[in-house]
Amino acid sequence: xxxxxxxxxxxxxxxxxxxxxxxxxxxxxxxxxxxxxxxxxxxxxxxxxxxxxxxxxxxxxxxxxxxxxxxxxxxxxxxxxxxxxxxxxxxxxxxxxxxxxxxxxxxxxxx
Length: 111
Ligand code: FES
Prior knowledge:
Elements: E1 2-6, E2 15-20, E3 23-30, E4 33-38, E5 62-64, E6 71-73, E7 79-81, E8 94-97, E9 100-103, H1 107-110
Antiparallel strand pairs: 1-9, 2-3, 3-4, 5-6, 6-7, 8-9
The structure holds FE2/S2 (inorganic) cluster.
């Protein structure tokens, strides 16, 4: 497992981008639960954020790709609007313990 960040550095309703090795990923906390995905839009395989750590739409209830505005459910990564509707972000297994967020990621395979 890889330590992603302190739990306290990902407050409720926020998102943050990370790089582990050469792998881009991001985390969102909603309803106290942390969700982690690869930072790669299924539409054109590019990073989603429009500025650093900005992965959410204006309502804070959906993940939004800056490129063409695709919207994704925070809980599942499913695209519910936009050019890749029906596809999904790739989820990264994560857990919180000892005051930190940890992810399971094979960096060599995903690099
Ligand atoms: S690259 Fe994400 S919506 Fe087109």
